[in-house]
Design brief:
The structure is a homodimer of 403-residue chains.
Chain A: H1 2-14, H2 19-23, H3 28-36, E1 42-43, H4 56-75, H5 84-96, E2 106-109, H6 111-123, E3 129-133, H7 138-145, E4 150-154, E5 156-157, E6 160-161, H8 163-173, E7 177-180, H9 194-206, E8 211-214, H10 230-233, E9 238-243, E10 255-258, H11 261-275, H12 280-291, H13 295-320, E11 326-327, E12 335-339, H14 346-355, E13 358-359, E14 361-362, E15 375-379, H15 385-401
Helix pairs in contact in A: 4-12, 6-7, 6-11, 8-9, 13-15, 14-15
């Protein structure tokens, strides 16, 4: 990081980059994880889904179907909003989850990450306030940061965001929006409870403050009680970001924004200025994959595999982690959240961890204010049982010997 | 447009959108061309390449090759910079054109349109000055407009941008960059001559002002003298935007930015904040299409077809257009530029034209200052000879009867 920033500083003197560009940092996770790609390092750090579960044969067949049925539309310029068949499919799936939406509310994006950028474009400018959970998704902080907002973090517990603190901060800061990951949050794996969802929507309505619900993991519930989508509770005040990255493939880069018809008018213009429209070809590939009936069975396969890996990792943690270490046991998603005992620093510990052949993301990067450096994020879904066992053993030793 | 903007205005009162979002207009071309999709309307308006030339069978084969050889990489998250094999291919093709570049200078983007947005992000903020050609590409004006720069237009003639005026305006306005389409410009079809290119680079160096050369059409030369790429003349000061949209398919949404290693550091961060990375799958599809040896023969096919259509359209214009109408005869690309006689207004005439079953884009939208409303842009590549003949006849009548 240091070296990169130094070079950039030299450049800034030479050419006139925008202030936003000069001050935007490179992704900390990507920088950290450069070291973790060394041979022999077991990596619980990244946010990658399990590649061995990619439905390769079914996607191959979907490609052929696209070329048979939609070749010209898939290869030509398309509408900014996206491929109609895919938008209809998404709207229909959301309706089954209790969200009242029409196709016109769906804007296709280049993954949910572009959804975050577009929401930032639409709402933020220098010194706008964004409320975030504590901790919150680092990638969202990075996407929004380009627009130079001020982040204010709201207290959370195991039931998610705490309504009284939301209300206090909405009153005090008049935020442009509140950003949450209501389902199996990145990084903690926690959900916002139904009761809290109701309260959050009520407060947001009172202060006319949009809720951005970033929802990449909602369909990956392994166990526990089904929760009502935030967008179903507050269709007028919630903007939901979705993606096929975790339920089919991230390389196809297809996500969506589900807003209100009136907000969609602004969203569509932002998208047009970004890149005209998303990849038509892979929009059709996802549509044909789903139309062939593969989507729900595939999600079930992924759920089952991730559920087993969560169980296995949690089992290994119980067996090997030193006393005083605690963790979340998420009912879905990809991540769990570890807290080490005392005043140990997970960021200081990372160098030893990588030397011992195990990588994670130190928790402190997921805070927009007042970081807790005793935390770390582990991805439980992208490793074999053998690697999970070995990785947790290595990590346990690193934690035990840290001071 | 009016109705949309009215609705948005109402919204702005309700929610706090960013100033940039509120003031960004929807694409004028897309609004105009909504009417032109009526049955029976011959459309010379859009910027679409000819769909009947899409190499459908070869792309289908490339999809299968991707699934055989790169399935996991094509479906997993990828590097922000892009797929290495494709970046190497692009760098190698650019070197053959005389541009000294390494793979690390190539950033993959979601079409050249995202390249424009990323360049805007990197350099522009409120009231930054951008120099543009007269006229200039409307889509670039729209992409840059989000960052609220001030556009200053530089005089041009048939040899492209006029160096003395560039120098005067660089001195006076200290622009963040100058934006040009050096090859077969959109909208005029003109090129900047070699002599002017040399002069432009020299002036840009003197004022340390980057040149953005948007180059979607460079490989589509039908006739005339080969020109040296601007990036070959000024590798230190030119940033070139490229795309596969006009030489393979726009639906695959793959373009690139070729800058300098130092500038690339900033570009990569901008890209990361936009959407992490471009579609891995279609990057590999393009790579496999090219690796199978199909790219150069396909470009030759497209060149030949477009060349014939240009000849045919120009022939029809000579035969049917009223006296006093003039036009460019481009040596490549997709567009030509018509100027009607006297004080006729092509924007006023458009309604009658669409009623007569012929659509074009009024030229006035391509000016960042002082629009010439006697001009129009015609796309000669996306129509059959029969439609070109009929369309030009209709347009000739509309021009002849306009007052």
């Amino acid at each position: 990081m240091g070296e990169i920033n130094k070079n950039v500083d030299a450049l800034v003197d030479e050419w006139q980059f925008s202030r936003n560009a000069r001050e935007l940092q490179s992704s900390i996770i990507r920088e950290i994880l450069k070291d973790s790609s060394k041979p022999g390092v077991i990596n619980f750090g990244g946010g990658l889904p399990a590649p061995e579960l990619f439905p390769v044969e079914k996607i191959r067949k979907a490609c052929l179907d696209v070329m048979d049925k939609h070749a010209v539309s898939a290869l030509q310029y398309g509408l900014t909003t996206g491929v109609k068949e895919l938008r209809e499919l998404i709207a229909s799936r959301m309706r089954k989850q209790g969200v009242e939406v029409t196709t016109e509310c769906i804007q296709i994006t280049g993954g949910a990450q572009q959804g975050l950028d577009i929401v930032g474009r639409a709402f933020l400018e220098s010194d706008s306030v964004v409320l975030t959970e504590t901790p919150t998704y680092l990638g969202a902080l990075q996407a929004f940061s380009f627009y130079r907002p001020k982040f204010v973090s709201v207290e959370t517990d195991n039931d998610g965001i705490i309504p009284d603190d939301v209300e206090e901060k909405m009153k005090k800061y008049k935020p442009r929006f509140i950003y949450v990951v209501a389902n199996f949050q990145n990084p903690t794996g926690r959900c916002i409870s139904n009761k809290r969802r109701e309260a959050l929507v009520e407060i947001a309505r009172k202060y006319r403050c949009p809720i951005i619900d970033d929802n990449p993991y909602g369909e990956l519930r392994f166990s526990g009680q089904h929760l009502t989508p935030l967008k179903a509770i507050g269709p007028d005040i919630v903007i939901e970001l979705g993606t096929f990255s975790k339920i089919i493939s991230p390389g196809l880069r297809i996500g969506w924004i589900c807003s209100q018809p009136s907000v969609q008018t602004i969203i569509e213009r932002m998208k047009q200025a970004c890149d005209l429209h998303s990849n038509s070809f892979t929009q059709y590939v996802i549509y044909e994959f789903a139309a062939a009936g593969h989507l729900d069975p595939h999600i079930e396969t992924v759920r089952k595999a991730y559920s087993e890996r969560r169980d296995f990792m949690v089992g290994m943690m119980k067996k090997h982690f030193p006393k005083g270490t605690t963790w979340t046991e998420p009912e879905g998603g990809l991540f769990l959240w570890v807290k080490v005992a005392g005043n140990l620093s997970t960021s200081a510990m990372l160098k030893d961890a990588i030397a011992a052949g195990i990588a994670y993301v130190p928790g402190k990067f997921f805070y927009s204010e007042k970081a807790d450096d005793t935390t770390m994020r582990l991805n439980f879904c992208n490793a074999t049982n053998a690697n999970i066992e070995e990785g947790i053993k290595r990590l346990a030793k690193v934690i035990a010997s840290a001071k």
